[in-house]
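User: Is it possible to get a 3D structure for a protein together with its bound compound? The compound here is pyridoxal-5'-phosphate. I've pasted both below.
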Amino acid sequence: MNLAERVGRVQPSKTLAVTTRAVELRAAGQDIINFGVGEPDFDTPENIKDAAIQAIHKGLTKYTAAGGTPALKTAIQSKLRRENGLAYGLEQIIVSAGAKYSLYSLFQILLNSGDEVLIPAPYWVSYPDMVLLADGRPVFMPTRPEHNFEITVEDLRASLTPRTKALVLNSPSNPTGSVYTREKLQAIAGFLEDKDIYIISDEIYEYFLYGGAEFYSIASFSERIKAKTIVVNGVSKSYSMTGWRIGYAAGPAEVVKAMETLQSQSVSNPASIAQAAAVEAINGDQSSVAVMLEAFTRRRAYMLEVFRKIPGIQCRAPQGAFYVFPDVSALYGKSYKGQKINNSLDFAGALLNASGVAVVPGAAFGGDNYVRLSYACSTKNIEKGLGRIAEFIEKLV
Ligand SMILES: *Cc1c(COP(=O)(O)O)cnc(C)c1O
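Assistant: Yes, that's possible. Here is the predicted structure of the complex:
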């Protein structure tokens, strides 16, 4: 018997595949340095863990409202008003099992078969597959490093068609680290204000900014742009809570209501205990964010300094998130022990096998000239790992 045609369109997340292979090699006794992971290496802060333990003791262990507890929705509502200048009613906010499920359900409720979704490339791995799972058509908008991997109004004008249903924006970006300035975002907002499309703004790396970069939500520029924007965010990256699975979306009430219906008929509700923990994350002491940011800032500087000295690699300074995205394409055509390296998959594969260093091939993000390295890992490992990369490159002929 055949599986649904739908599942044949998608693949398991390529970033997870690298991590899986790295874990396998480590289990087999190899000394592996993993730059592949897309999560902070910090523990979830104690105050947040305590809130979860309290929630268990208080018996908050039952189903909650499908769209999230009033306590968490209220915390998110205050956060969006306080930090982003965005006023939403509670009926405009939904809590989900990670920002990823917010994005997944958005595509499910927005797209009809063949509807187009504009995705600036390089992009976060899951956007195209999520669009495909919703019977939509991902339309990639290639960007260039010279343009800071950003799209412009001209790019949008060229890409819009009568079938365009939505644009995905991700600033700060995973994997490129680019952060749109206020002016650039405002120009895009101005152009899209009277267009009949939704804007999905993935703001999950909001707090991770470097070198004076500032964060703006595109929804904050006018009421008209806010009315067509769905802001997606969550606690995974900000509070090192990736395993807790809490994300959220805020936007037009009819969109949020449809997401809530989908959620009620699929996962019912995000875990009650994790929701209680997320209330503390958002309302409680924020000092853990500053501690993480300080560490990432130091590691980023160190990584950039080392990369500058490795010949054959071009590494731009990311302005946000916690990844570097070096261009390794100058090394394509070379060989490692007789094995030709022609693309990012070859590069990442050879590097992992030869040196025990895991990086994510840029092909996973629609950028085959690049590989992605997370600096959400210890300085000691960064030092060791980059040393091994330099040695690996020296051996290429
Ligand atoms: C990590 C990540 C997400 C998903 O985060 P959740 O853990 O599902 O909340 C969404 N978008 C981007 C760009 C990410 O890197």
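The CA atoms of residues 11 and 239 lie 29 Å apart. The first helix runs from residue 5 to 8.
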